[in-house]
Amino acid sequence: MRLVLMADTHVPKRARDLPAALWDAVATADVVVHAGDWVDVPLLDALESRARRLIACYGNNDGAALRARLPEVARAELDGVRLAVVHETGDAKGRERRCAEAYPDVDVLVFGHSHIPWDTTAPGGPRLLNPGSPTDRRRQPYCTYLTAVIEAGALAGVTLHRLPRRDPS
């Protein structure tokens, strides 16, 4: 099972649309995961229509229309892998401990908010993944997203994808 993970898309405030490379990844994915901060409903509509399956939550920049359609925490089981998706996990310091306590029943927790890619495993707790942002790199050198594979009931092949910098003109 092929997954694409994204967060903090901020469309149309930070970009008019997702980068073409990310749309290409969506087209080949079995599951698309979005960890919030969509900003506007049309991107949700587009991902719902183009993704085979979408698992998503809302973020702190998402208004009433998005919150009416998305949960604060989304959960799913994918071929035996228990997944949760949430926008915010708090400060990086102590994140593993907090997430292990807050999500003891998941194998993988996908989150966003910081725009900083993250991949760690909490001791005795979930693998924590933040795909960064495909449209707003902030202080990061690149805009990013993640892909992963679920094989034999386990997460494998997690890959961070760097997107080309947009021409400032």
UniProtKB/TrEMBL annotation:
<dbReference type="GO" id="GO:0046872">
    <property type="term" value="F:metal ion binding"/>
</dbReference>
<dbReference type="InterPro" id="IPR024654">
    <property type="entry name" value="Calcineurin-like_PHP_lpxH"/>
</dbReference>
<keyword id="KW-0479">Metal-binding</keyword>
<comment type="similarity">
    <text>Belongs to the metallophosphoesterase superfamily. YfcE family.</text>
</comment>
<protein>
    <recommendedName>
        <fullName>Phosphoesterase</fullName>
        <ecNumber>3.1.4.-</ecNumber>
    </recommendedName>
</protein>
<dbReference type="Pfam" id="PF12850">
    <property type="entry name" value="Metallophos_2"/>
</dbReference>
<feature type="domain" description="Calcineurin-like phosphoesterase">
    <location>
        <begin position="1"/>
        <end position="151"/>
    </location>
</feature>
<dbReference type="GO" id="GO:0016787">
    <property type="term" value="F:hydrolase activity"/>
</dbReference>
<dbReference type="InterPro" id="IPR029052">
    <property type="entry name" value="Metallo-depent_PP-like"/>
</dbReference>
<dbReference type="InterPro" id="IPR000979">
    <property type="entry name" value="Phosphodiesterase_MJ0936/Vps29"/>
</dbReference>
